[in-house]
Each structure stands twice: as structure tokens, then as C-alpha cells.
Queue: 4 jobs
Job 1
Amino acid sequence: MIPTLEWLPNGVNFLDQTKLPLEETYVLATDYQQVATVIRDMIVRGAPAIGVSAAMGVALGVSQSKATSIEALNAEVATIGDTLAATRPTAVNLFWAIERMRDKYNALATAGTPIPEIKAALIKEAQQMYDEDIAACKAMGAHGAPLLPQEGTVLTHCNAGALATCGYGTALGVIRAAVERGHKIDVYADETRPYLQGARLTAWELLHDNIPTTVLCDNMAGSLMRQGKIHAVIVGADRIAANGDTANKIGTYSVAVLAKEHGIPFYVAAPLSTIDLQTATGDDIPIEQRSATEVTHSNGKQMTPNGAAIQNPAFDATPAKYITAIITEHGILRTPYEQSIRDMFDKAAAKPELVTA
Ligand SMILES: CSC[C@@H](O)[C@@H](O)C(=O)COP(=O)(O)O
């Protein structure tokens, strides 16, 4: 399996996704500030991977603390969490993971646990989140595979694969699971301007697994749909609002509208940690604005005239009405999403075990 990130005795090791597909190199973050930089600079990216990276950042920061009193450690934990939370605003998994680590810390600190034991427990918690993430991806695959065509072409946007998670992937995990179950699937990967997650990352990891992949420019999907060449669409998510509206990489909304116009099913695959019950609708999801140079420059070369105004929102929100189903690790959500989401959280609380095959 592709090693997206890994806890090591001397830090957290990240596959440098800014260098793929041409170079497979690693960046070792040896303190929590470096983990924050790795997330902000998109050396690691993708909602679930960002979440687990932040959890490991908290574990690393606490484990390196020189604090000798719980009061001093409390203050450090707050700073560590705030630093990691300030990296990227849209993927809710980041905030979910930091909160889970803070909750764990607070429970141990309140119970009077000695500091060395707190440190060990936080490292264990982050490693457990890593394992849970892979298990959730596998379970999404098991639930979602039957939705994909037995034979056909599936379009995906951005990278919601092993590289965006701790392994296996959400949307690409469903594709992997379908292929493992004998489906004959060709993948169309939108290039995903401006950061090219589709062209660089999705194509790289699917070809790594021998899954046939064709890279499309972002403006080709409509024409291919009209010709009947796309049979399903599956994407990941950065944050799903309580009503099912879904923020994902910029361009996802256009693909969803096109899919509906052409009668093609449009699926979202995401773990429950991506669903934000505190956010009512897609309009309430904060959308990250990234640097203009991602748009103006390609491989260091300027592509636009000086003076041209630039927009670079990294995500858009797709209204729930365009989404055929949301695939989670606990099962499939369908409209009306507000209700099915609430029911799924109840079901997960009552029966947390995941399907494994
Ligand atoms: C399983 S990852 C789902 C999403 O995080 C993914 O589709 C996406 O939009 C990633 O954006 P990125 O800006 O590369 O972090």
C-alpha cells in the first residue's frame, strides 16, 4: 500500500505529494510546527490524511513537551491544537481530529494521569486513528462497490485515494474494491486545475495498482457524458453539511450538474468524520482561498498577463440534490439526507463495528 504518512520514533514521515508523480521523496516533520507546515504546503493533503496528520502533530507536540506541571501542559496543548487548526479551513477532518486528541488529553489530565502516561496515550490514540482511517476506507469500499457498474467508465475529480487518506482511499477505495470484486472499470481522472491532483496523483496511484486510467482536462467531462462515455461519477469530500451539501475540490459542482443533466449517478464517498453536523448547509462551509500563483504559474512559468485578476477558491459546495448517494463506512446515505445522516450517526453509535469484506 502507498505510504502516505507514517509515525516514526523521530517524527512523522510524509510522502511529498508536491513532487509526485516524477519524484517519490519523503519529508520528515520532527516537531508539530513542521507538521503544520507540511499540511499548509500540501505536502500531505486530502481531508482524512490531513486529519490524521494533525492528530500525529498533536501527539508529537505533546510528546516533546518539557512541561513539568499539568497547568503548563494544558497551555501547550492549546497552542499545539490552535497552530495545527490554522493550516487549512475547509476539510472538517482536521478540526475533528484535533478535537478528538484534545478530548483524550483532557480526560487523562482531569483524571490526574502522570505526564509520561499522557504522552504515551496520545501517541497510541493518533496511531489508532491511522488504523481506523484505513479500516473506514475498506468499509466504504465494501458498501460502495456494488453501486459501480460491472463494466464501464467512472469519472473522478481531484484525488480521493490512498494519497488523500492513510491508505486505500475513499472514492478511489470504492473503485479499488469494485475492481477487486471483478468489475471491469476504466477511470477517467479530471486533471483538477490548478493543483493537478487528478493528473499528478490519481493517475499515479491508480496506475500503480494497474487500474486503467485516462486523464481528462477539466473541461472535457460534459462532452464525454453527452457521448455516453461516462457511466458513473464518484468523488470524495472535504466537509459534508448536515443537509448533505458537500464541499469538495473546486470543479466538483460543475461535474455534479453535468451528471444530473445526463442521468449519470453521482456518488460521494466519505467517512462520518467528514460530516459536520454543526454546519447546516453548503453555504456555511468555509472555502479556502489559495495563492494566485497556483493559477498564474505552471511549473514556475507565468501563464497569465501581469495585471490579470485571479480567483483561486480551492473548493466548491455541491447541493445535496445533485448527489445520488453518499457512501460512508457505516453504509449508504440517500435523500432526504438530513434524516439519513442523523440515522447513520445513531446506527454508528449503537454498532461501531465496520464491515470488513
Ligand atoms: C479522500 S479526500 C477528499 C477530498 O479531500 C479531496 O477530494 C480534495 O478535495 C482534496 O483537496 P486538497 O486541496 O488536495 O486537500
Job 2
Amino acid sequence: MIIIWQYWPALISAAFCCYFLHELLWIKKRRRLPPGPKGLPILGNLHQLGKNPHQDLCKLAKKHGPIMHMKFGTVPAIVVSSPEAAEKFLKTYDQVFASRPHHEGSWHLGYEQRNLTFSPYGPYWRKIRQLCNSHLLSNKIISSFESMRRAEVGLLVESLKRVASDGAAVDFSTDIRSLGANMSCLMIFGKKYLDKDFKDKRFGNVVRESLEISALINLGDYFPLVRVLDLQGFTRRFKKIAKVYDDLLEKIIDDHVNSQDQNETKDFVDILMDIMESGKSEFDFDRRHVKAILLDMLIASMDSTMATVEWTLSELIRHPQTMKKLQKEIEDKVGNARILEESDLEGLVYLDMVVKESMRLHPVATLGLPHESLEDCIVDGFHLEKRTRLIINIWAIGRDPCVWTDPESFIPERFLGSSVDLQGHDFKLIPFGFGRRSCPGLQLALTVMRFVLAQLVHCFDWKLADNVEPSHLDMSETFGIVTSRAKSLKVVPIYRLQK
Ligand code: HEM
């Protein structure tokens, strides 16, 4: 008895060791995780994300594999970097990963995530997705804005013609963004609000500021327990921006309600207010929902499409033979005595190939939007717990050397006779995502992008300003919700149609 008493502490320690060892082995076996880089205590892998996280994650995936486990603060994450892995998560396990995580920016700017982009998966998301698909982003509504698009692109062409007659250079990046902002505002609000100052702030700058901080790493999103401390001051900034937006949206809605104008073309405010007032929505739908959706449409559409036009023009300038071939295709159809119309775009197969190739190399939503799992699941024998974040590295998939030959080169001809499209039917090209949470603005984006690009290439030849050689054009990227050119595109337009 005394002997046992003497060894009591050692026995307890041994029992604890056995227990923990057993637990450790058992948990490891039960919770087999995908391979991934070792993280630091507390931070996890956050320190491995630099200024261009899509590039950092692509490098890490080359070492650890296309399904990579990481931890961002306390949040477990899976990073997917190959077409097969993307198909598994976006098709086979689509429903499990159909939710979105808490996002502090979207919480404040999206009326507590009542918007479509960050709304958690469930009946509310299903209803607003259906509403947006059928009432805002349908082919019929897209066509109803055709004349607005013609007029706005016409204004840009006229202003570029004036520059061309002086042989001067333009900052194409600024011009094209302003075209995007104006077209989005006209479609959504019926007016070009972004040109105007609003309570001492230029509205366009407010939108850009919100996009910029939304793309930064917010510790509150990765350490929920310290969210209330707002260590980086982001929540304060989001609340301030949300107030500017809210005041403006209230004013826009009031203007619409009080207006006697019976415009033939209804903008998004008209459409959503009609739905709200008719009570046809079949779910809670008040001004907060209207404002959340309006803001969502503005932020999603404003820069994304035009950043793609900017990347495509950059590639065409770097590849003069491709530019000539595209100009010839358009000229064969339209001639060079008149401006092209949207109806001329049908059957421009080389234009489609150029757009695909540009979106392969420069998908502006490089990491898509984060998904979150709704339940525990086992994928490829890996145990992934509920609330695991899913990041699809769209940028890495577009450059995957296992599925693309010469992946870093711009070669539209690779799509000749190929069935790969932009709808995601083949997971090697998914710039708009795939599945339940894929981009509902795809048709609108493609219509605008093809029209603007075809018009600019048909009307002008393009030279780089300051005698920069095409092969020396800086193609570096700035990561964001929309990943765009790091350096402005400065060009000299040369008008090429008959006067
Ligand atoms: C070049 C243009 C665009 C690209 C490359 C793009 C790409 C994407 C991607 C990758 C996603 C995330 C998919 C996912 O989570 O799996 C997305 C979501 C979304 N996009 Fe786009 N997009 C573009 C333009 C637009 C436009 C013009 C609109 C609307 C006016 C729009 C509205 C949305 C919305 C609302 C979502 C969230 C859908 C949901 O969560 O259910 N996008 N987009």
C-alpha cells in the first residue's frame, strides 16, 4: 500500500501521458488534414500572405499540393489550386461549402450581410439570388440598357478622337474606370452620381476606399474574440463609409419616390422599389434590403468589368499580331465606315478567344470570394470541420502548367476548336466561379466587356506613351477585391475609321 502511495504522482503522470498520447494519435487519425505549410502559434499562416496573396498561395501550393490546409488566426482554411480540386469543392461538395464567412466590411456596408455577395447560405440568400437573377440581371434587363451603353461608350470614343487628333497621350486606366462607374450608376441609380461630391467626399473615392479596405487582412475576421477591440480601426472606418453610403442611398431612393418622371427604362432603384411596394417579394423586404442590394450591384460591377478591359487592351498592345487579327475580324463584319453595335458582336469568334485568354491570365477576382462550410465533411479522406473557409485560387488554376501549355504566354489561338467556355463547364477556366455562389453578373459583364473592347479596337490603333516598347509594358498587379494593373496604362490612341 505504502509502495503504491509512494509512486502515486508518477502513476498519475503516466496515466495523463498515455491519455494525451492516445488522444493525440486518435485525433490525428480521425482528423486527417490536407498537407499545408506549418504555421506560427496564434497567427497560423497569416504571416505568409504578402501584398499579392494569390501569388503567395500559388507558390505554397506548388510545394504542398492543390488541396492545401492552412490556418488564418483561429480560422481553418482550405486553398484549392487545380481544376480537379475545384470541381470537387464547387461541384461535388457545392452545397456543403455554399455559405460565406462573417466579413466585417460586408457586415457594416451590407446592412448586416443582407446583400447577395456575403449573405450566409439559406432561404434568404436563395430568395434574393432568385430576385437578382430574374429582375436585375436577366437578358431582358441587360438589353434594356443597350442604348445607354452605346451613348456612354460613344462619349469615350469622341473624347479619345479629340486626343488622337492632337497626337496626345491619355491615362487609359482613369478613363476606362470612369466609363465603368458611369455605366454602373446609370443602370443602378439612373444618374451618374459617382461624378458628384457628396458631403465633402467624392462618391467614387468612397467606393474605392471601401473596396481597398475590404481586401486588407482584418484581424477581427480571423480572431472573432478580439473583433470588438477593432485593433486596426477598420470597423470605425467601415461604419463611417457605411454612413456616407446610407445617406446617399436614402437620397437616391427619396428622389425616385418623389420623381414624376416616367422613364421608359427602369433603373435598379425603380425595379427594387416596385417589388418592395407591391409586397410581391414573399419575404421580408424593406428599404434596408433594397439598399443592401443596390450597393452590392454597384460594388460588384463598377471596377470588375473595366479592369478586365484594361488587362485585355494591355495584352493586345503587347501582341500587335493579335491586335491586327482582332481588328480584321471586326472590320470584315462591320467595315470601317461605321461604329459597331452590340448586335454586331454575334459570331466574333476571335474576340471571344481573346477575352477567354485575357480572363485566364488576368482573372480580376483572383481568389474569388471566400466560401464557408456548413457542416463537418470528409473530402478525399481529409476531415474538414464545420466553418472551414474555402479559397479557390482562380489565378493559379488559369496558370496551372498541368492543364495549360505555355501557361504564362498570351495565346488566344489555344481556344481554337476548344469547348472551354467562361461559364465554368471546364474547371480549368473559372473566372466567374462555379456552382451556387458563382457570379450572377456573368452575362452583363461579358456583354459590356466585349462591346467596349470591340469598339475601342475597331476605332483606334494604340501605342504606348513615352515611346515604351510593347514588350517592356509593366504588367504587375495590385491585389484587391478586383485585382487590377499596378501601374496606369498610358497610351496614345490613333483614330483608324474613315472620318
Ligand atoms: C469581369 C467581371 C466579373 C468577374 C470576373 C466576376 C467574378 C466573380 C466571382 C469569381 C465571384 C465569386 C464566385 C464564388 O464565390 O464562387 C463573383 C460573385 C458575385 N458577382 Fe461577379 N464578377 C464580375 C462581374 C460582376 C457583375 C457585373 C455583377 C453584377 C452587377 C456581379 C455580381 C456578383 C455577385 C452579386 C456575386 C455574389 C454571388 C453570391 O454570392 O451568390 N459580378 N463574381
Job 3
Amino acid sequence: MKILLLGYGKMGKLISELAEKRGHEIIAKISIENVEDLDNLDPEEIDVAIEFSQPESAVSNITWAIERHIPVVAGTTGWLDEWKRVTEFVNQKSGTLFYASNFSIGVNIFFKANEYLAKLMNDTDGYSASIKEIHHTAKLDAPSGTAITTAEGIINNHKGYDSWTLTQGEPVKRNSVPVESERVDPTPGTHIVKYDSPFDLIELSHTAHSREGFVKGAVLVAEWILDKKGVLNMNDFLSFEI
Ligand SMILES: NC(=O)c1ccc[n+]([C@@H]2O[C@H](COP(=O)([O-])OP(=O)(O)OC[C@H]3O[C@@H](n4cnc5c(N)ncnc54)[C@H](O)[C@@H]3O)[C@@H](O)[C@H]2O)c1
Ligand SMILES: O=C(O)C1=N[C@H](C(=O)O)CCC1
């Protein structure tokens, strides 16, 4: 498979290593220093683009590839205010976009456990939900994309919540899930869901030991989407039954 890397930072470099180990060819490695190299690429030579760049460049990178009929695996977070516009564009062009806030299989199991826990807590009085995420200090967006997906998992399964609010401890409105972000090096990614009551505390957490889980998931998805169309996510790739 011939891969274009849109973003060649911490994630792009690790994806390049694993993809080459799995026998794939990296056609180009695009970062802020060589964006103009995109003009010299032949789209016919690219099977898939893997996009791990920065919140402000994700949308232009994705639309660049979709315009050229290149399937995109997108991992950059912090651009979801543009979600509707981007996905309408993908569908209009009959393109392929796979987005995941987190490509790690472990986190996607955590997402399912979070949804199940929210359903259980739905009928239980006296507990307040909250989310905390911890990442390295170079992270540009807050809260993390993973924390947003986790909050959506609670909102969609617990009738006591209809929104989330980024907070550093100050109170939020009753129907909103408070989300706290902390930046501590070298944390690759930690997410904690809490349901606290006057009597006890229930906690569900996922701690990434390295970026390897995100990297492996992204490469496996890139191999999987080659013959797929439309806007896809980890629920299409994994089929967990609970
Ligand atoms: N979905 C997931 O599983 C997952 C996992 C880890 C990181 N991420 C996200 O992926 C993104 C990248 O993470 P990272 O740790 O590699 O960041 P990083 O800062 O190490 O790398 C970002 C790279 O993007 C490049 N870049 C900037 N503008 C660009 C442009 N216009 N076109 C192409 N490249 C450009 C930079 O030069 C840099 O090399 C972040 O948004 C992060 O939140 C997602
Ligand atoms: O390192 C990052 O940045 C990460 N970003 C994703 C997020 O925002 O959830 C996934 C975890 C690592």
C-alpha cells in the first residue's frame, strides 16, 4: 500500500516506522516545513493518506486529499466544529474519510464500558459524573478528542446530561458533564470517568503507556479502508457486542 503522511510529528514518525515494517511504502512525509511538496505529488500513486497534523491544518489536509479521490484516515483532534461541513463535502465527492478521536483498541473498549456504565447510572440517584484527561504539555487542544467522545458516550446514554463543559474545578450547570484537562509531561494519554456520591466513588480509567496503541490502530484502519466509501469510524472497524 502506498501511503501519504499528512503530518510527520510524533505520530507521523511512528506510523511511518510501523507501516514500513508491515511492507507499505511511504510516498511522502508532509510537515509544516514542506507543505508545498503536496503540489508535486501524483494522486494516482497514493492509496491512502494518514492525517496526524494540527487542529488548524486538519480540514485543509482532509479536503485536499478528498478532492483528489484519496481515502483519508484522520487522527488529528480539535477541528470538530467543522465536522458537518467536512463530512458533507466527503459525501458530495463520494469520498472516504475515517475519523477516530482515538485509534487505540483499549480506548475503544473503554468507550464501550463508559457507555454501559452511563446506562447503569441512568437509573441511579445521587451520583455526579465528571471526566478528567491528562496529556503531555505539547498538546494544542483541550479537552482531548478522546474526552469529547467519552462525554458524548455519557450524554447519549444518561438522561441527566445533555452537554459537557471544560472546567478547571469551577461549578458547571447541573445537566453538563464537567471535563477537566491537565498537562503533564510525558503523559501519552490518560482518561478518567468518575461518578461521585456522598457514599462512594466509581471510577473508570484508561492509561496509555505509549503511543504504540494509537499507531497500530491507525495503520490497521488504513489497510482496512481501501475498499470502503463514506464517513466511517471505529464502530465500523470493530464490532464489539455487549
Ligand atoms: N486519534 C488518535 O488516536 C490520536 C493519537 C495521538 C495524537 N492524535 C492527534 O494527532 C495530532 C498530531 O499529534 P502529534 O503528537 O503527532 O503532534 P506533533 O505536534 O508531534 O506533530 C504535528 C505535525 O504536524 C505538522 N504540520 C503542521 N501543519 C501542517 C500542515 N499544514 N500539513 C501537514 N503537516 C502539518 C507539524 O509540522 C508536525 O510535524 C494531534 O491533533 C493529536 O491530538 C490523535
Ligand atoms: O497526544 C495527543 O495529542 C493525543 N490526542 C488524542 C486526543 O486528543 O484524544 C488521542 C490521545 C493522544
Job 4
Amino acid sequence: MQVAMVDLEHHFANHPSLFTGLTMTLVSGHVYALTGPSGSGKSTLLGILAGWTTPSSGTVVHTGIEAIGWVFQNPHGVAARTALDHVALPLLAQGEKRSDAEKHASTYLARFNLTYAANRAFKELSGGEAQRLMLARAIAAAPSLLLVDEPTAQLDPRTAATVNQTLGAIADDGTIVVVATHDQRTREACTDVIDLGEYT
Ligand SMILES: Nc1ncnc2c1ncn2[C@@H]1O[C@H](COP(=O)(O)OP(=O)(O)OP(=O)(O)O)[C@@H](O)[C@H]1O
């Protein structure tokens, strides 16, 4: 399973290039921090990796990528549903029995330090808990490629730290993870860095 970026260049009509000459192969089990100044094209590159945006030149070759997951900067959940329900849902959708899905969901909650919050409604969760829940839910859906956009942007530094602590373990199942971020500590929690500042 891999995603190969080959000589990518992108610019919007009548604008200069955001990045150029970007060649890199993303592999299973790695968590890539996607960094660069504001406006350098991080979100645009996530869209290119997902296949939503066609690069101006170069190619992205997906090998063995079946499902792509996203986690956005603002957590979205169902207010009255519990944390456990949010993670069990993708497992039920994969055909697991409810009892198995809940057991399995509990292990994902544990991985993101949320065991204590399993039976809390989404609306009762703090920003950091809700963001960790989004990561747990995304991983439970077993994507081959997970794209995460600024997971700590809305969080204070202490809460952000609780999210960053879980990032290292996020690719344990072999998922390829790309995290767009401005946060130095998020960057340090990842295994690799793609710095768009190097491709201008
Ligand atoms: N559809 C579009 N048409 C024209 N310009 C666009 C479009 N989408 C984004 N841009 C511009 O391209 C540049 C890169 O945007 P992008 O959101 O990818 O940057 P970013 O690195 O994610 O920024 P930030 O760190 O501020 O979130 C910005 O100047 C943005 O205004």
C-alpha cells in the first residue's frame, strides 16, 4: 500500500505556483506531518492526495488504497449519541454484530485515551476529547489513507497535547496518515515531515 507523488506542481488560475517538484512516496504505518507557512498549499495538497483536486502537473499514484478517511479541524458528531456509539458505527457498517462492534470500539477508545468517556454524549465532550474521538472513529473505519487537517488548530496547548500524544499510535494498523499542521508539537509527534516550504 502506498501513495506516490511524482513531480507535483500546483497553481490556481492566474496565481503563482504553490509548490513545485514534489516527489515523495508515502508508505504504510507512517504519520506524515504536512507543514509550511499559511497559504503554502497544505489543504490543497490533501485534496490532491484524495483525488478531489487535479494537480496542475505531475501525478499521484495510489497503490492498494481502497478507502480514504478525513478528519477536519472542527469535530462533528451527533450531540446525543455516546462516544462509544460514534466509534461502533463504522464497525457495524462493516458488518460486525453490535456486541462485537462495541467491544472493538472500546479498544479504539482506549488507544485514544478515551475509555473514561465511552458513555458520555458527544455534546458533553471537551474539544480535545471530541477531536480524539474523531481520530478513533476515522481509524475504526479502517481507511488505507487518512487525511487530517489541522487537528489542534482550535485547541489550547494543554488540550492539544492530549491529541498529539495519540498521533504516534494512529498508523499502528498500517494506515498511511497525513496531518496538515502549524503546531510544532504535532509535527514532533509524527514520524515524518513533508515541508511544503522546501518545494517553492
Ligand atoms: N479554489 C481555489 N481557487 C483559487 N485559489 C485558491 C483556491 N483554494 C485555495 N486557494 C488559495 O491557494 C493558497 C493555498 O491554500 P491552502 O488552503 O491550500 O493553504 P494552507 O497551506 O492549507 O493554508 P493555511 O495554513 O492557512 O490553512 C491560498 O492562497 C488560497 O487562498
